[in-house]
Amino acid sequence: MPLSSLLPFYSHPLWADLALDVDPAETGPLILAAVLLSLVVIYLASKVGGEICLRINFPAVLGELVGGVIVGISVLHLLVFSEGGAVEPSLISTLLQQTAGMEPDLTALISQTSSEVISVMSEIGVIILLFEIGLESDLPGLLQAGLQAAVVAIVGVAVPFIAGTIGLIYFFHIDTIPAIFAGAALTATSIGITAKVLAEMQRLSSPEGQIIIGAAVLDDILGIIVLAVVASLAKTGTVEISNVVYLIISSIVFLVGSVVLGRLLSPYFLGLVDRLGTRGSLLIPSLIFAFALGYVAVALQLEAILGAFTAGLVLGETDRRRELEEQVVPIADMLVPIFFVCVGAKTDISVLNPLVPENRPGLIIASFLIVVGILGKVVTGLTVFGRPGINRLAIGVGMVPRGEVGLIFAAVGTASGVLSKSLDAAIIAMVIITTFVAPPLLRIVFKPAAVTIPALATEEGLAIASEARESES
Amino acid sequence: MPLSSLLPFYSHPLWADLALDVDPAETGPLILAAVLLSLVVIYLASKVGGEICLRINFPAVLGELVGGVIVGISVLHLLVFSEGGAVEPSLISTLLQQTAGMEPDLTALISQTSSEVISVMSEIGVIILLFEIGLESDLPGLLQAGLQAAVVAIVGVAVPFIAGTIGLIYFFHIDTIPAIFAGAALTATSIGITAKVLAEMQRLSSPEGQIIIGAAVLDDILGIIVLAVVASLAKTGTVEISNVVYLIISSIVFLVGSVVLGRLLSPYFLGLVDRLGTRGSLLIPSLIFAFALGYVAVALQLEAILGAFTAGLVLGETDRRRELEEQVVPIADMLVPIFFVCVGAKTDISVLNPLVPENRPGLIIASFLIVVGILGKVVTGLTVFGRPGINRLAIGVGMVPRGEVGLIFAAVGTASGVLSKSLDAAIIAMVIITTFVAPPLLRIVFKPAAVTIPALATEEGLAIASEARESES
């Protein structure tokens, strides 16, 4: 079939300004086809990976990450994302080229556009995940754990940063600015991975879970500030104090402001929801709230997931919480796997191959960063005070995974020319190991408590605990 | 804040090949912000429009379409899609430019990418809608109505096509090829709008609903074939018979094959689903099935929504139907409004303004096309045989809305240079009027029956009817 016979049943806004001679009526169905095929691949990877992990008693999310690695840049090249650089088209677009008779020129275009769409969908996935986590979290419990979470977050940023930077300078004779950058890459916990593992183990509302989630949220903000500082240091050699002050103030105003305002306004919000008669009368206003706060967070140079989490927290305090949770579950089931599979797919594990001689210097530095990265977070559990019987090890381990956030540090460092190739590879290796090791570790360290409160480990247990919490409040 | 201080917490595959000097780490959060803001606008438009329509006793989907018109290209310019041509950036990206300190150069880029993402999400929305409609449809009932639906579909394509073409040639002295093209644009019913209105009135499983849905699905396929014929006629002056034969065979093979194979394989599918233990164990395999069939449909040069509808039909025959329906509802609530608001937003109603002198020739032709477009479909109800007491008028009116499909005809015709400006405007006007008039008309013509079976008009009624149907089978 010639390309001209492809039937343009959907038009697309596309590339018109970019002086590319492409008819959007021709690319439209192809982009949709590429996105559909990508979603099929993502879901297959997430389910095969998740189910295998479940059977060998690992967290399902680890399986989704590994499934992503297998379909992604490292192995099968089915899902390929060009992170700043040009990359060969994914296998999916090559398949499209064959099944739909697409011209090779179009392949790169379709591949880029569809991977862009999948990227945004994966971000909406993690936004929905954090919204769900916020809904399931317990605001009073979180506030009660607030001071301890703050200490955990600050220690968990400071220890790996200082130990990493000094170690790189003294043991590896790395220059100060690259060492500071690599040290900074050790700081930010991936809230998504930790929260997902906790949710899978039904430990979100345990005291440990509350401290971990609170600390991970604060850690996320600290990570943003640290990145702003080191990025400006790398670019200009100085630190823009005004920018740091701006970030600190805006994050405090945002978090406190949205919770306080949200709690004040939620009765009016529910009153409005009660008067709506069309489909999605609770869901759509809640999504408007979550997406709007996500947008405000991005506009303040924070992260969208912080806004979604805060929106979930506020709506979780209302009496429509249970109903909203039930409606968010299928949406999360549909969108969240896209995020985890994409994180895996974007991870290039070839830097871990010791058989490649160029990898070896990076791997030696990586071993150091991994030790600092894990120990520097595990010690944070020791800072928790006044909570006899709490699982300190679990809190520390919960802060270990670096996930996508660490990869961004590496990408920014490499883009600004601060990081050498081996240091860049070492950071990526550290991110891979901490991300993939944390979920099973977390399951191991939480085991003893699971034996003492076995009911909590089942779905019924969660329902009972959740009801108990509701009747308390 | 300078652009350089924007914090790149998510990287994006983007534009790398296109010789644009854009750092994806800088555009990433902005694209996400633009998508989030667009979603907030879409949801606000859908809820405000839907609720107003509900209160004045119009179908909610009409409100979503009108809400889309108001936020779209016609009025507020908040959501702008560049359908093949360059368009000024949307107000959303201008707002982003101001709130996030974005450089003007980036605005066009962000605007295009985010509108592309929204476009694909809206298509996934209509895919989910048709999947849901398929789930709620009754395959035996649909097969029983098959012959009548086929007659309705064929008459509903032939009458407007012949009457439109001949009328344009004789009354308006338009050349043969443009007249054939405009006549062809009168043929394709928008299955999405009709199905949504029927679902809102809980009439999907009524005898009329079954015939309408069956006819709309066949009509969709006939529309694809007609478009292939006229597009090749417009381009080369001849008809590629081989292509027409290919389309007819592939659509028959696809529809029959996927239903037969699906019914054969569904026990194994359910057996597999029962063995899964991770979250979304029913939903994700079902989505894999729907998206994979959607992909196959696109690869066969059909439409993705046909694949999703067939997948829904097959899964609707299984005993997990009710459970799956419950999980699909919130997903449809989230994604379907994006489709209808986008259809409205893409519609430029300025061609309807009679105060603009250039519009007048088009409006006169449009009046003719509208009359032919409505009457040519309404008469199809008269062809229904052997069904005493059936609401023939409702069936005819159900086939009236042209929606997005008609707009594609206009876009293809204009792109290939066949349609004059006034004929193009006339087609767009015909699409607008048939789309916006059909939902309230459908509600009016269905009224009498609603009085005789009042229980069906309530949600409980649907549940009762649905249960009755289940116990029958």
From TrEMBL, chains A, B:
Among the GO molecular function terms of this UniProt record, one is: antiporter activity
Keyword presence, Transmembrane helix:
yes
Cell compartments where the protein resides = Membrane
List each copy of the Cation/H+ exchanger transmembrane domain by range: 52-446
- Residue ranges of the TM segments: 27-46, 58-81, 147-171, 177-199, 211-234, 246-270, 282-315, 363-386, 393-419, 425-446
Please give one Pfam family short name. Answer: Na_H_Exchanger
User: What family is it from?
Assistant: Belongs to the monovalent cation:proton antiporter 2 (CPA2) transporter (TC 2.A.37) family.
Descriptive protein name:
Cation:proton antiporter
Organism field: Pseudocalidococcus azoricus BACA0444
Lineage here is: Bacteria, Bacillati, Cyanobacteriota, Cyanophyceae, Acaryochloridales
